[in-house]
Design brief:
Layout: E1 13-14, E2 17-18, H1 27-39, H2 45-57
Length: about 60
């Protein structure tokens, strides 16, 4: 992974609430998230997928 973030993640505000998107993830990704959560309590699925995406891009 790229490195620890120095600021907490927050949802970007949108007019009249928050933007919500429903996605489907593979079982293997969910298992990796569960393992990762044990060492990083409080990490959200969104944050994990962002980190995994950044790592995949380079």
């Amino acid at each position: 992974m790229a490195g620890k973030r120095t600021t907490p993640r927050k949802r970007a505000p949108v007019k009249n609430g928050y933007k919500k998107t429903t996605i489907t993830i593979p079982s293997s990704t969910h298992r990796r998230f569960e393992k990762h959560l044990k060492s990083n309590p409080g990490l959200s699925m969104s944050a994990f997928l962002t980190d995994a995406g950044e790592a995949a891009i380079g």
